[in-house]
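Problem statement: downstream parser choked on a complex file, so we are re-checking the raw output for the phosphoric acid mono(formamide)ester run. The parser issue turned out to be on our end (a line-ending mismatch), but while we're here, posting the original submission so the record is complete.
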Amino acid sequence: MARKDLLDIESLERRDIESLLDQSVPFKELFTRSVKKVPALKGKSVLMLFYEPSTRTHSSFEVAAKRLSADVTNFDVGQSSITKGESVRETIETLQAMRTDYVIVRHKNSGLPGVIARHTKASVINAGDGAHAHPTQALLDAFTIKEKFPDPSGRKVLIVGDILHSRVARSTTMILQKLGVQVAHLGPGSLVPKLNRDVTRFTNYEAAMDWQPDIVYLLRVQMERQDVQFFPSLREYHQLYGITDLRLEQIRERGLYIMHPGPVNRGVELCDSVMDYERSLINDQVENGIAARMAVLYWLKPGSEQQDP
Ligand code: CP
């Protein structure tokens, strides 16, 4: 069913997810053509409202919107009146007057995209809010996994690292569970909260490998969100939970895939050689992000009734 906003994965039905993943396939095929644009959103306007840094999500949404022929405006938060104390709501009212069709928002505060969605007729897409949700990352992750495992039900994905501060871990765990994938979390006990009873928790790398995952999904250690020290040192983290050269060899022998949402901390969650590993899906994730985000933009209906999150 079409909707106005995409704020999280929780509110999506399995059939919505499957339809978005199916729609991503023809959009990805478009990338191999000489003309990579379709007129689906011609005349529509997309506003990028990023209050936090982003490389992949920002550029991927911009490319996705342009490939659908939408007009894209980058709202420069650093140059806006927000720096003079203007509230987000006032900013949105200003933007509302501009009759933007889509607002893509990233903010450090969980729930802020939902607040914006309630104050605008535009379709709001959450591009990451605090430790809450990153729904388009989850969609591109699921799409990437489905390319390797067309029926992912029953497959096993081990998510490693800073689960506590990770909106990616929350959204990707949720989408995978909705698709019938088994999910486990591994990391220092202080960074692996009990998210839900269907997620298996590990604090020991070898025990997690004995669970026999198909995919090892590494998370970035988010030093900027850690107000207290959750583990002794980055060096120790790498030795206990990082993919070292030795662990990469074991992963290669088992034929496992490796994923990472980026940006990567080399020498922390992985060693340099992971980037050249033949079953690394990290670059596939970046490419698939454009197709998945095109599918989201194409699906949402600006101006329609807002669904309760
Ligand atoms: N995966 C992700 O959200 O990356 P960026 O912070 O570069 O957008």
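For whoever reads this later: The longest strand covers residues 123-129.
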